[in-house]
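testing teh design pipeline on a random one, pls ignore if ur not involved
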């Protein structure tokens, strides 16, 4: 490997990081029995792919087998695509924080360069109108403020994902694999006509707390004294059902059983300690 190869910079940079202090964890390979990967190795692979526009986990897996630079960087380790994808998912928080910090550092350096240019221009042409450098400086400062806002929002909301332009979007749904940031669309539909009576867009990751506000808003829209609503088990909530009842709303939602859902339904006997004599 050439001494001035960019891949050497990635290698030295990651080796100098406190990866555990930054929150990176070890990654378990897909094949049972194999030792886990050092987070430094997978972070090196991630950075190499990021800098060379190789974003697919499957493509990164192939690079480990045929790309000389990657083979050198990872010492011929060959993680499978699932291990690579899991690393990015499980370590999204430190990766996001690193990307924000990296861009912020680049902006700070460029701002310093522009300020230096402005000082030189002031000495040479003190009476000239503001140059293009001034306008560019304002753009950089605005972007720097945006990054500070993004970082603060991530910390305040205890989140590791944020979409610029859609700050309220959150990962939705359950199950395996990463969930893209999105919204939870709620609709109340009349069963006879199929007309939408009320709708709402929320950033709630599930429907558990949506039964009462949706039912109440629908009742207010219709201007009726009582209302019967039917919802699926995802809306099941004793608290929400009680709130609906207090408003003259009959809520029909099946119980969302999550414990012993396959049991025989019998009672569980408790062992009792005997009285001491």
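output:
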């Amino acid at each position: 490997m050439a001494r001035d190869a960019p891949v050497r910079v990635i290698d030295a940079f990651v080796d100098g990081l406190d990866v555990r202090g930054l929150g990176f964890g070890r990654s378990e390979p897909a094949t049972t029995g194999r030792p886990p990967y050092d987070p430094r190795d997978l972070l090196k692979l991630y950075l190499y792919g990021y800098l060379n526009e190789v974003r697919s986990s499957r493509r990164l897996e192939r690079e480990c087998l045929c790309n000389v630079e990657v083979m050198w960087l990872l010492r011929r380790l060959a993680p499978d695509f699932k291990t690579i994808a899991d690393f990015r998912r499980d370590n999204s928080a430190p990766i996001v924080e690193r990307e924000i910090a990296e861009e912020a550092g680049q902006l700070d350096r460029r701002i310093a360069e522009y300020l230096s240019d402005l000082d030189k221009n002031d000495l040479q042409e003190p009476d000239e109108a503001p140059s293009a450098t001034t306008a560019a400086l304002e753009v950089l400062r605005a972007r720097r403020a945006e990054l500070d806002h993004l970082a603060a929002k991530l910390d305040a909301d205890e989140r590791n994902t944020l979409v610029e332009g859609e700050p309220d979007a959150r990962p939705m749904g359950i199950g395996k694999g990463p969930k893209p940031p999105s919204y939870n669309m709620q609709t109340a539909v009349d069963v006879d006509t199929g007309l939408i009576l009320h709708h709402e867009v929320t950033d709630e990751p599930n429907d558990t707390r949506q039964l009462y506000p949706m039912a109440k808003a629908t009742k207010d829209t219709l201007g009726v004294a009582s209302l019967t609503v039917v919802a699926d088990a995802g809306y099941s909530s004793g608290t929400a059902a009680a709130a609906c009842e207090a408003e003259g709303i009959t809520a029909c939602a099946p119980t969302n059983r999550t414990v012993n859902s396959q049991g025989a339904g019998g009672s569980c006997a408790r062992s009792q300690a005997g009285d001491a004599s």
